[in-house]
Amino acid sequence: MYRTKIKMMKQTITTLFVAIFLAFAGTASAQLEAYDKDVTMSLGSQPAIVLDMNEISSRDAEEYWQDFVKEYVKLKRNRRADEYYAKGISIPLVSDRKLDIYSKIEDLKGSSRLYLWIDNGGAFVSASEDPKTLKAAKNLVNDFAVEAEKLHVEELLKAEAKNLATLEKDLKGLEKDKESYENDIEDAKEKIAKAEKNIEENAVAHEEKAIEIDTQKNLIIRMKERLASVGKKKTKM
Fold it and tell me: How far is residue 130's CA from residue 125's CA, in Å, rounded to a whole number?
């Protein structure tokens, strides 16, 4: 039973290693690309770049997004519209123009969605108004998608590594207990061997003592006979 428990613990640790490996291996295949569609925002319905982020919470996505764009600007928040924005910023990878950007993270119950609107100074970037900038902006968002997924999996890895450390600690505890139990068995075997030897010695002593008792009983019988004969005249033949 105890060996089975340790075996199951080792199998659990092995399974955890496999799960961590599959999490990394599946990152690239699970990655979604940005797409564009009209979405309502603080300035009405405008063309936006949209990115779905599976299994990434809105809280984490918001943190990842702000860290990603801080290379270009620190976003301000429009609490009423629940949007982040920055005006007159330069993003060379997207456009040579100064840009106004607006973004929002939508919570999807365990997953999230990023909306990004870009105003190039004359209109919001779209396939019809500014396809070149739209393509470059999509590439930027796709780069963010990779970075966000990487950060997400790293967080998962930290959590699973912590679980692994706990399991390994538990396994060491089980192995230590096993060693203690084995020592208890050896001690018990020594006590049993000593007790068996004591029983053998006791049997010999018991036999010797029984002989002594019989000898003593015979001695008492003779003493009683002697006592009974005291004062009696001997009969002449």
Answer: 5
